[in-house]
């Protein structure tokens, strides 16, 4: 295993405060299983109203969507060699969300396509805890593009729909479509708005019930307060500044998938940022992008497209918030230490806290220790080596030869003396 490079180590050091902040934020969050359980219970309440208005076909559409999601997840886990967990409630939540954003008269094959696509997208990005796009939003966006007539046309209120078989009833467009085509607001009273007395997807028109669901999820901490109110607040503010009409602002929230999406899709624990500041930026980005799409695009259901773009940006919201917080702290610290320093020091001088100042502020530079050795004020001479020229080199070589010749002569003389000594010793012995 190769050792990390210098750039990687520096990157880890820079990211260490951010990772510590994210770890601390994760400990305060609820587990995804509890969040999905709360969403399923409240979506069941919305489904009961859809059954009351359109009949048992609404229940059949929801069951079909949930079963397709569960079966697709089992197949995906088998192909990826992963263990399927029956405790994973995300499949049920996504299946119900897909069904409630469709009309009650939708064909079953479209429901199957949407449910299979939602869970397939989940496994494409690695399965649980790895995907970055909300599966239900991906499925609805695909169905709007491919099957606009079947997905964006709705039965009239109170129409009893058969569970199976062809549905030969007149279809009507939603209030969002009529506003896009005609440019006029629908004639709805406040009671009609709260009760949901207008055509639309079978789970997104019950405004009062959706508001109650939002309050319950907020108390249960199953949706992000920062993301939800950041998105709703930014969308309402920008819409009011651009149009100047409060009626248009209200209309934009009750039409399409906006209110349902903010409650059940935008706060998906798998796609939300971790920190509170990151979630606030996430919600504001979602509100701004949805408003821009609504003003510039002439299609319905733009909220799901805005949500997919915001999901892609969600990976960088925590880092962006950390950088904003760091720069803000540095700016406030600089202003606190430098802004009005002369006046503050003058007041301290009058109170006797510091020496009196003249009309110009004295600048005192603090000593800095650079880990240098102590100075003993002694001058040491440095012996510089002389440069050797050609003549000096020639003389050095000649001296070397003379020394070698003298040494050889001395050795010969010493050898001769030793021979004569030996000869004299031999004579004396004889």
Keywords:
single chain; 430 residues; mainly alpha; Ammonium transporter fold; two-stranded antiparallel ribbon; 18 helices; 2 strands; 65% helix; 1% strand
Structural description of this entry:
By secondary structure, the chain is mainly α. The protein has a domain at 28-324: Ammonium transporter fold (Orthogonal Bundle). The protein is 65% helix and 1% strand. Strands 1-2 form a two-stranded antiparallel ribbon. Helix 4 (90-100) packs across helix 5, helix 11 crosses helix 12 and helix 14 packs antiparallel against helix 15 (302-313). The longest helix is centred in the C-terminal third of the chain and has 40 residues, at 390-429. It starts with 5 loop residues before the first helix and ends with a helix.
SSE layout and pairing:
Blueprint lengths: L5 H21 L5 H23 L2 H23 L10 H11 L7 H17 L10 H12 L1 H4 L1 E3 L15 E3 L1 H8 L7 H6 L11 H13 L5 H19 L2 H9 L3 H7 L11 H21 L5 H12 L3 H22 L2 H10 L39 H40 L1
Helix pairs in contact: 2-3, 2-4, 2-10, 3-4, 3-5, 4-5, 4-6, 5-6, 6-15, 11-12, 11-14, 14-15, 14-16
The top level CATH class name of the domain at 28-324: Mainly Alpha
Main sheet? 2 strands, antiparallel
Q: Please report the distance between the alpha carbons of the first and last residues.
A: 88 Å
Can you list the strand order of the major beta sheet?
Answer: 1-2
Would you list the SSEs in sequence order as H and E? HHHHHHHEEHHHHHHHHHHH
pLDDT averaged over residues: 79
The share of residues in extended strands comes to: under 5%
- Total strands: 2
Low-confidence parts, pLDDT < 50 over ≥5 residues? none
- Radius of gyration over alpha carbons? 41 Å
Pairing-aware structural class of the strands and helices? mainly alpha
Number of helices: 18
């Amino acid at each position: 295993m190769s050792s990390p490079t210098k750039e990687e180590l520096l990157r880890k050091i820079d990211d260490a405060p951010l990772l510590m902040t994210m770890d601390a934020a994760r400990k305060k969050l609820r587990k995804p299983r509890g969040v999905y359980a709360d969403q399923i219970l409240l979506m069941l309440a919305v489904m009961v109203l859809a059954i009351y208005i359109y009949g048992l076909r609404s229940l059949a559409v929801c069951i079909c969507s949930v079963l397709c999601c569960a079966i697709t997840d089992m197949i995906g886990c088998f192909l990826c060699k992963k263990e399927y967990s029956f405790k994973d409630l995300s499949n049920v939540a996504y299946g119900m969300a897909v069904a409630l954003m469709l009309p009650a008269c939708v064909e079953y094959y479209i429901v199957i396509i949407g449910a299979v696509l939602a869970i397939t997208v989940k496994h494409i990005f690695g399965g649980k805890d790895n995907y970055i796009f909300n599966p239900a939003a991906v499925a609805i966006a695909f169905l709007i593009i491919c099957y606009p007539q079947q997905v964006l046309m709705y039965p009239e209120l109170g129409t009893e729909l058969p569970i199976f078989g062809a549905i030969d009833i007149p279809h009507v467009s939603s209030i969002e479509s009529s506003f896009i085509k005609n440019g006029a607001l629908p004639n709805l009273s406040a009671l009609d708005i709260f009760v949901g007395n207008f055509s639309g997807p079978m789970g997104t028109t019950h405004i009062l019930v959706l508001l109650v669901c939002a309050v319950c999820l907020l108390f249960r901490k199953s949706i992000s307060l920062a993301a939800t109110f950041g998105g709703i607040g930014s969308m309402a503010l920008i819409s009011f500044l651009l149009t100047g009409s409060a009626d248009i602002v209200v209309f934009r929230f009750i039409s399409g998938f906006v209110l349902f999406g903010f409650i059940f899709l935008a706060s998906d624990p798998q796609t939300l940022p971790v920190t509170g500041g990151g979630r606030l930026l996430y919600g504001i980005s979602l509100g701004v992008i949805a408003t821009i799409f609504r003003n510039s695009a002439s299609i319905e259901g733009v909220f799901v497209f805005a949500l997919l773009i915001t999901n892609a940006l969600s990976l960088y919201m925590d880092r962006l918030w950390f950088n904003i917080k760091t720069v803000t702290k540095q700016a406030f610290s600089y202003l606190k230490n430098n802004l009005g320093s002369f006046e503050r020091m003058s007041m301290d001088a009058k109170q006797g806290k510091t020496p009196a100042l003249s009309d110009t502020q004295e600048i005192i530079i603090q000593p800095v220790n650079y880990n240098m050795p102590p100075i003993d004020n002694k001058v040491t001479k440095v012996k510089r080596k002389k440069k050797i020229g050609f003549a000096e080199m020639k003389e050095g070589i000649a001296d070397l030869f003379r020394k070698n010749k003298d040494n050889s002569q001395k050795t010969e003389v010493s050898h001769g003396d030793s021979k004569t000594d030996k000869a004299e010793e031999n004579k004396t012995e004889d």
